[in-house]
Design goal:
With 761 residues, the chain is an alpha+beta fold. The radius of gyration is 31 Å and the shape is elongated. A hairpin with a 2-residue loop joins strand 11 (472-473) and strand 12 (476-477). The chain contains 24 helices and 31 strands.
């Protein structure tokens, strides 16, 4: 009892101090800035008091009917509404004059002062008058009669299991620590697929299907060499249409908040795959966010403070000579960081709390992306990264408190979609980009184009592809036109070709066949064939079965400096077999094109003048030494390429992993990438848009570092280190016997537990 009285007295004193400071600061700022005439402090007090009273009585109603206008104006419409109210107040208080732009700026000033003082004095916004009114109001509007348990999935984008453990030990996430210590929740890690990034993982978790998503961005040869980027608005819609079967994680009356995909939810806010749908703007789920007149100014202040934190971070890392670090993060990143770490975070939390009070959704999935953005640029376990986690933990506490007042029981599940691995960038470590390395091994007259820019999930969508170089191919120009669509650059690749029609459905560029020149010399048959076109016929011939069998066991095929054709002929001579290959090709070096894309430390190389996935033999014949240069580079961990002879092989230095059989010659380089690495590579190898050459950077086990092909310190997208080990914090009564492998299996785990809870209800 005494403690309750003491707490109430403390809150009363805090409120009195708040009122006094608000009036005094408002009065003196208006004297300096103008905009409104206030004769004295008493008048200033009357303005603040009456406006606060009107807002308290009318704002829930005003906010409800003006919701669409407020949403379209990103919340700043609230100040115009308050300006109108302020104008009517001025008509009844002598000495006040306000008009023009001040009808907007003065309410904005009041909101900034109010929000600033609330933050400084640590006034609990979630126990405010407005929340108590709204809580009761939403329970009346959305009267909930179901006895189903609700499920709230809260994703921390990019947080690895190991980094979470460190944050818990440091005391940065007290809410999660409390859940674990009380025994309410259990913590486990899970392992991602090869593509350890958001689009692949969220597709698997939300839709139970992440097939044919080889990376953050990829190229589709059969679609005019179109580049698909996972965080592009149009592209995310395309991807969701491909992966959805209508039975996603949120298909049973669910809600999606700040995600890449919807999970087949009926209601979605800030969900990229549905961002253009008008329903997203008109949904009443925005109501809680804008149910308070000054919530926008609170976000603005936190936004500006986060930009200041970024400035301090840059200075701190410079003076401490933090390594590795990005020497230049750019001006735009100030906004990108604050937008994800504050803007998206606050909007997500407010809407979830509103959903909880309404109680109408059976399942809610939301993503907090601030940590991922900061870890990319400051480092996975930098001070700033743990700062972001502390702020996210506060959101979980706010959501937990809301569930305690909810009409139905909610289960809280915290998870991440992937982790992040730290390290110098490939360019910092070796003085060149992946594009530079590829360029060194290709003829000068071959145009090589790359997208090696930041994989900033959701928020920043800068590709900076540049103009595609125009090359003449039989007097036909090949072009890629860059289109700008509102908030991002869309890259639409359109190539005009003169091709040979096959099956009357599409035009292809195929390597023309060399005719078999049969010569009889001393009763022996000599065969002159083109290796890329006749290899399948040779393989099926019983006459050369001995050759093929011995060839498969001969590691010289992948090593040495000879051209591909010479290697085949030398082995043929050594084995005393009378088979000869020619070295002609119909794809000219002058017209060949290459595209180099990146997804963290995973690189994808496509040769766009070949309509299908190139084989090892084709690449070696067209670009001798390229694969050897890649696989032997110190910064490259392994290279995957399909072979006409050996099926798919994975090359690393002088070692060769035959993916089909799992046999490896040389060192078992792949073991440091995890026990499931072969399974991951096999699965990716079956995807429709797997690149001609898939490249994964080296993983330095001793220093726990990978080298991103993008200019990012913390990175993810391939194999190596923490990036492939995210976590799940789940209710203790759930059944999980072993570590989960693959995002699709996370979906199955969640779906099974929800259906078990809802069975018969």
């Amino acid at each position: 009892m005494a403690s309750t009285i003491q707490k109430s007295l403390k809150e009363l004193i805090k409120f009195i101090v708040y009122i006094i400071l608000e009036v005094v600061i408002f009065f003196f700022l208006t004297k300096v800035l103008g905009g409104i005439e206030l004769p004295n402090l008493k008048t200033a007090f009357l303005v603040i008091a009456i406006l606060s009273l009107i807002n308290a009585l009318l704002w829930p109603l005003i906010g409800y009917f003006s919701l669409r206008f407020v949403v379209i104006t990103l919340g700043f419409g609230t100040f115009l509404i308050d300006g109108i109210l302020l104008y009517f107040i001025s008509l009844f208080i002598p000495g006040i004059q306000i008009e023009g732009i001040s009808l907007f700026s003065i309410p904005l000033l009041i909101g900034l002062i109010s929000s600033f003082l609330s933050l400084v004095l640590n006034i609990d916004d979630d126990n405010s008058y407005y929340q108590n009114v709204l809580e009761k109001e939403m329970k009346v509007i959305y009267k909930n009669n179901t006895d189903k348990e609700g499920f709230i999935f809260l994703e921390i984008d990019g947080l690895s299991y190991n980094t979470l453990k460190k944050a818990l030990d440091r005391g940065d996430m007290p809410t999660l620590s409390k859940w674990i210590e009380k025994g309410d929740h259990k913590l486990t890690r899970w392992e991602t697929d090869l593509s350890s990034q958001t689009s692949s993982s969220q597709a698997g978790i939300l839709h139970g299907n992440n097939s044919n998503i080889p990376a953050f961005r990829w190229l589709e040869k059969e679609n005019d060499n179109r580049i698909i980027s996972s965080n592009g608005r149009e592209n995310s819609e395309i991807i969701e249409r491909r992966i959805s079967n209508g039975k996603g994680l949120l298909s049973n009356k669910g809600a999606s908040r700040s995600n890449l995909f919807s999970g087949d939810a009926e209601d979605h806010i800030l969900t990229f795959s549905n961002l253009t749908q008008s329903k997203s703007i008109g949904t009443t789920s925005w109501y809680y966010l804008y149910s308070k007149p000054y919530v926008v100014t609170r976000i603005v202040i936190l936004f500006l403070f986060d930009m200041l934190m970024e400035l301090i971070s840059r200075i701190r890392q410079l003076f401490n000579n933090t390594q590795p670090r990005l020497k230049w993060r750019g001006i735009a990143y100030y906004v990108a960081r604050a937008g994800t770490n504050v803007g998206m975070r606050e909007a997500t939390t407010y809407t979830i709390i509103g959903d909880i009070f309404a109680g109408q959704y059976n399942a809610i999935y939301a993503t907090y992306i601030g940590y991922d953005e900061i870890a990319h640029h400051s480092g996975v376990e930098d001070y700033d990264a743990f700062y972001a986690l502390r702020q996210i933990d506060k959101q979980f506490r706010r959501i937990e408190k809301a569930t305690e007042k909810a009409q139905r029981k909610y289960n809280l599940i915290i998870l991440s979609d992937h982790g992040q691995s730290n390290g110098f960038t490939f360019k910092q470590k070796y003085g060149m980009t992946l594009n530079d390395l590829v360029s060194e091994m290709l003829p000068d007259n071959i145009s090589i184009h790359s997208i090696l820019h930041s994989n900033d999930d959701y928020f920043r969508k800068k590709y900076s592809l540049g103009d595609y170089v125009e090359e003449k191919v039989d007097n036909t120009k090949e072009r890629i036109d860059t289109k700008v669509d509102n908030t991002r650059e869309r890259i639409e690749n359109t190539k005009e070709r003169i091709d040979t029609k096959v099956d009357n459905t599409r035009e292809r560029i195929e390597n023309t066949k060399e005719r078999i020149d049969t010569k009889v010399d001393n009763a022996k048959e000599r065969i002159d064939i083109h290796p890329m076109e006749r290899l399948s016929n040779i393989r099926d011939s019983s006459k050369v079965s001995e050759y093929m069998e011995k060839l498969r066991l001969d590691n010289r095929f992948f090593n040495g400096d000879e051209s591909f054709t010479d290697k085949l002929n030398n082995i043929s001579t050594d084995l005393d077999l009378d088979i000869k290959f020619s070295n002609k090709t119909t794809v000219s070096e002058e017209t060949a094109q290459a595209m180099v894309l990146s997804s963290g430390n995973l690189g994808l190389i496509y040769f766009t003048d070949w309509s299908n996935r190139m084989t090892y033999e084709q690449i070696e014949d067209a670009f001798p030494g390229l694969l050897k240069a890649l696989s032997h580079h110190d910064g490259i961990g392994f290279v995957m390429v399909k072979s006409s002879i050996y099926e798919t092989v994975v090359l690393s230095k002088d070692s060769v992993l035959y993916l089909e059989t799992g046999h490896c010659t040389g060192e078992k380089f792949y073991e440091k990438y995890g026990e499931h690495i072969i399974e991951k590579l096999r699965r990716t190898d079956q995807f429709a848009h797997v690149p001609d050459i898939l490249v994964n950077s080296e993983y330095d086990v001793e220093n726990d570092e990978v080298y991103a092909f993008e200019e990012l310190i913390g990175n993810h997208g391939g194999a190596g280190g923490n990036q492939q080990y995210p976590f799940i914090l789940y209710p203790s009564n759930w059944e999980l016997d072993e570590e989960i492998f693959g995002a699709e299996n996370v979906h199955k785990f969640f779906k099974a537990e929800m259906e078990k809870s809802w069975k018969g209800k």
